[in-house]
């Protein structure tokens, strides 16, 4: 069958099950059910602190076929997923499904576990590095499931993704399972991606390298959700956790794109008191923040909130009074983590509060402006940030689809040509975010507005910005690069791309070697 | 049938249903289930702010036979319950069950609604004043259900108590339903009793007199739980909310009892680093805190946490460094509310985290010392704080049973004789808290230790404290007062007293006029 975007998808995918086809960004909202949860009562005198991960595996009765979850606040510095998997492999347990909010190059040991059948399923919102490449080459028994940052808590809370055991990497834990990310040598700030896991998994094990006396303070995940606590030497490499390396681009092309994107925002009329804003941590996206900052200051505008994975640039704007609040699901750098710790209005949000479409209103619903990247975009404004143009998985939605759906003005900023390939295609290799959610594409050579946004097209006519149709922009690019060849892939499905509501927006086929 | 305490209880109570008899404080722990919840998705552009309570009743489709809930942080200053009920009565809706965490004299209008069949059921953890008296006289169609502060969230989360619509009195709300109790003219501090309601009710309506632009900061109850927001002129009378009137007793008898109770704590060996402590806001209980404070200072002891409904006395101890943290479910006075706002280690806890026995460990489980009052206590140490000796409801467990069950040392402080009646009985009028949870009774004439605590009996032998058996203390009292007459009640059950695990520990019979 074909879904509403014309993507060819089987009705049933082996190892995944029956497909609910994508039907539009808000087609599947309405009444949603949060699943029932079983909890083992802890009574006075019970002890939660265990000697090591092996004991925890025994206590939670981990066995073949189970699904275990991890969160990615420690990013490419995370030791916890690998430590737990090593212990599982040693015990001879197999057929494990890993539900990680994201997978990074540091998780390379998974490749061997996949080949040996120890790991047979993977859920992730984003994956890069050896694991993503191995999946693309068919190393995983069942198709990987790619979700969004808001779709993952939706799936967990609804029961679509049942977690047997959640392992929560905790920069600080007390002896009764109260956790925070603000204290300890592995401090990472917010813990937003771990909250649904803690609330809905059958069992929850906190793994910490900073075990403190009861009670920890502050508390981000409370004792009522945590079954056991294990202390280890180190949960992560600080250099990989909060890198401090988010930087505004110095590339003149990127700066030009950022300037144009900011002019689009200004023309939209959204730069006024109450403005809400989010941007990714890419160099061009950050440059938009820098441009916006100057305009807000010049106009004396006080925004309502900035959200996201948060960087120091956003913290600077907040601390200069340009936003009243920050909603933070994850801190991207040390400055963000510091601010999260000290500024009361720099507030935590769970990934469910951030982007779950089946809540009573996620934070993304209140976003005015969202700055996003793209690997590819097609003439229907569908965006791919999941696979490269070679068809190999190198990313995933993360919050891309969530913020695009929620925001009033979702702007894609990208070079028109990358690595000698035009980014505008007739058909993207993989659809991550549907075109209906994207309002504007800004490239160094010109701007294209989604035809649905007739209001914005009118407003941009009053500016000197170089506005084209997306087909025109595509032609400009292809004049430089020639028409790219279509990539060849096999028929084997290696990954299912779920939209935030749990429908299937696309599939990823096995890449040819 | 009789439950394990020998209380005569029917197997089925009309208007309540099948009785699960109380079987012991921790007999019903194990695997507990949190119920599934249905949520109406809110999509971008949806508006949550409604014009008035009437519109909210329409939106949530309030109708005959529904259960609606309220929390009691505004205490005897609360306007919200009465406002909502007035609107319901005007619409001609009837047969409403009210699940309020507590009911105060200000809620007197309920008496008329009960008589007219508009209100036919009441759940509360505590009730005093005209409503309690009317229930005792049989004015309510179905028996009232008395719960504990930890038992109420257990019942809500398990589905035993299904709430159709929760009305949350919010000192501050933003336009998307983020709530806090720290800002606004009706600021009350913590909102711990409202959290389970917000998380598990079918619909949630916030009622505020301080509607602020999005987002509110801080956020205690988030937008993902709130369907609608209504702004009204005033949610409560500040004089009744945080009264600032909690005071240490000046009565020499009370001070003597407090001094002896503190000597018991000292003899128990619990006054050492890491000590955790809770006390009610009664004058004698607060005097124990004052005594304990001096000992902690003299010994250089740093406690782990104080918990509870929090008073300025506890805040003083915390701010002097005698406790590392405070867990706060409700602020009892202005000083507590101020501290809750400014001190990061003065932390909120939901009533579920406070006392729910079917969680992965409530805060009460970690209490060392708990100071409690009693209206009556029997020779098996069963305590009544639900009814007066005349059988009329004048209180209820609140956190009495929860903290007694969780703490290592639960001390009852009370005068041996009150209003010329001895407080020690052969059989208390109503059992609120089972004797197995009570460790010591301290009166001005002597101390009785629960025979189960042989360790403590040994320790007290090394002191000069006047230790008796509880039968001996009873005899001392009766020598002064004579043996009191048994009260007469009818056979009609007007209230069912649930233990924190949902079993029935006792019933209250209709008082004779």
TrEMBL record, chains A, B:
Main location (coarse class): cytoplasm
Gene Ontology MF term list: citrate (pro-3S)-lyase activity; citrate CoA-transferase activity
Enzyme Commission designation: 2.8.3.10, 4.1.3.6
Catalytic activity: citrate + acetyl-CoA = (3S)-citryl-CoA + acetate; citrate = oxaloacetate + acetate
Transferase listed as a keyword: yes
Cell location: Cytoplasm
Keywords: Cytoplasm, Lyase, Transferase
Organism domain of life: Bacteria
Pfam assignment, any one: CitF
Record's protein name: Citrate lyase alpha chain
């Amino acid at each position: 069958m074909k879904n509403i975007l014309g993507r060819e998808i089987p009705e049933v995918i082996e190892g995944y099950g029956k497909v609910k086809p994508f039907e539009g960004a808000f087609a599947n909202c309405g009444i949603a059910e949060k699943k029932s949860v079983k909890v083992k009562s802890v009574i006075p005198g019970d002890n939660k602190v265990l000697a090591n991960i092996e004991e925890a595996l025994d206590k939670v009765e981990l066995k073949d076929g189970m699904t275990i979850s991890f969160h990615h606040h420690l990013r490419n510095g995370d030791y916890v997923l690998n430590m737990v998997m090593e212990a599982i492999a040693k015990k001879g347990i197999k057929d494990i499904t890993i539900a990680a909010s994201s997978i990074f190059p540091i998780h390379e040991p998974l490749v061997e576990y996949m080949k040996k059948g120890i790991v047979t399923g993977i859920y992730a919102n984003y994956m890069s590095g050896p694991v993503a490449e191995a999946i693309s080459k068919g190393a995983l028994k069942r198709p990987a499931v790619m979700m969004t940052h808001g779709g993952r808590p939706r799936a967990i809370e609804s029961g679509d993704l049942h977690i047997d055991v959640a392992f929560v990497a905790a920069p600080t834990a007390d002896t009764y399972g109260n956790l925070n990310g603000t204290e300890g040598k592995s401090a990472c700030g917010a813990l937003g991606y771990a909250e649904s896991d803690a609330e809905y998994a059958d069992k929850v094990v906190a793994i910490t390298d900073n075990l403190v006396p009861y009670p920890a303070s502050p508390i981000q995940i409370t004792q009522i959700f945590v079954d056991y606590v294990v202390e280890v030497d180190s949960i992560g490499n600080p250099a990989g956790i909060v890198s401090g390396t988010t930087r505004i681009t110095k590339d003149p092309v990127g700066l030009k794109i950022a300037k144009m994107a900011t002019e689009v925002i200004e023309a939209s009329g959204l730069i006024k008191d109450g403005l809400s804003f989010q941007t990714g941590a890419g160099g061009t996206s950050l440059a938009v923040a820098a441009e916006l900052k100057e305009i807000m200051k010049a106009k004396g505008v006080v925004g309502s909130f900035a959200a996201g994975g948060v960087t120091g640039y956003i913290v600077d704007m907040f601390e200069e009074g340009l936003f009243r609040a920050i909603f933070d699901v994850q801190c991207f750098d040390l400055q963000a983590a510091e601010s999260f710790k000290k500024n009361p209005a720099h507030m935590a949000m769970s990934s469910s509060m951030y982007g779950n479409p089946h809540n009573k209103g996620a934070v993304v619903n209140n976003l005015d402006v969202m700055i996003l990247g793209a690997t590819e975009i097609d003439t229907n404004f569908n965006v791919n940030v999941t696979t490269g143009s070679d068809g190999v998985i190198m990313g995933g939605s993360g919050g891309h689809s969530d913020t695009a759906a929620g925001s009033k003005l979702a702007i894609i900023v990208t070079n028109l040509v990358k690595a000698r390939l035009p980014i505008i295609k007739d058909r993207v290799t993989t659809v991550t975010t549907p075109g209906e959610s994207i309002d504007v594409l800004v490239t160094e050579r010109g701007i294209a507005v989604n035809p649905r946004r007739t209001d914005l097209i009118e407003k941009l006519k009053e500016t000197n910005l170089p506005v084209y149709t997306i087909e025109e922009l595509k032609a400009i690019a292809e004049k430089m690069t020639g028409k790219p060849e279509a990539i060849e892939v096999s028929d084997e499905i290696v990954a299912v791309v779920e939209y935030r509501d749990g429908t299937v927006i696309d599939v990823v086929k096995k890449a040819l070697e």
